[in-house]
Specification:
The protein has about 375 residues and is an alpha+beta fold. Helix content is about 45%, strand content about 15%. Strand 3 (about 55) and strand 4 (about 60-65) form a beta hairpin. About 30% of the residues are buried.
Amino acid sequence: MSDTFPKAMVRAEAQRLMAFFEACGGVPVEADILQPADLLLDLYGEDIRARAFVTRDPVRGEMMLRPDFTVPVVQMHMDGGADPARYTYAGEVFRRQEDYSTRSSEHIQVGYEVFDRTDPAGADAEVFALFSEILSPLGLRAATGDIGILKAAVEGLSTTPRRKAALLRHIWRPRRFRDLLDRFGGRAPVPASRKALLGAVADGIAPMLMSNGPMIGLRSEEEIAARVQALLDDAATPPISVLEVEILDDILNLRETSRNALEHLRDIAVDLRTIAPAVHRMEARLNAMEQRGVDVDSLDFEASYGRTTMEYYDGFVFGFYAETRPDLPPVATGGRYDALTHRLGHGRSIPAVGGVVRPELVLVVKEALA
């Protein structure tokens, strides 16, 4: 058995998958391989440089080889797409890998995206059901989650807007999120470097250094002073209550079948009411999935699913995995990204959900089953 297939074979499989999505209403679209780096940096931050291939065009400036399709498809739609709209596509994406990684830095994706404001729960169910149908012969395990529930839980914490913003910014970085939650909840000490700076401020040393020493770096004196004041304000902020931290831990650790997870989240919503709308959306989505023939009673739900690889998703997320090949990446992933349409829509937005499948992984699993 081999995990490597001729590119022509992978392309043929991609065309088969794309034809399925086209038959389901997806309009075929394409996206430039070279994408403006400033847009991607604005969306993902400098972290994306470690994962993308960057080059420079003498006319267009800094560019990146397409790391995915979702961003250019969203931008295309927001620049004048129909409402509602469904798209499908196939083509290469490029991701730098760590040194000595066995993973390819170039692979083909096939995708299906839905832009529809009339029934978001129905659109979630449509996308998931279509991916489940096309992948059903492979016997994959489906995993689902909901970043929207976790975001709503953070927004409901009884703490400062600054602390909530910090936690929301790092939802997709679980280790950093945990460090912040432990510190904001009083379960971990203030970092030594920050404690030293606060001590210097308390002793009157920092202002003296700022007034007498040279300014080094890009920040102005006003920006540095504002940052110091923010640190002082944070140090004076009471810790997040033990109850709220425990509730957030409960959500983060929730792994159950979907209907059982829904009942548990309903109980949590009694104490943390800000998650109630997201829980209602989850219930509507499960009902819509059931109407499309999805067995939601056995469908796995993990509240933390998608937090390491799905940075622009802000609601429902899903993935399909080959349990017999735990070394493989997910065969398909997807989810809801409403906020991304707002950021790229110049003041306009539309609910959107979609997913991608990797045809070469479909071939790997098919070969293993043969």
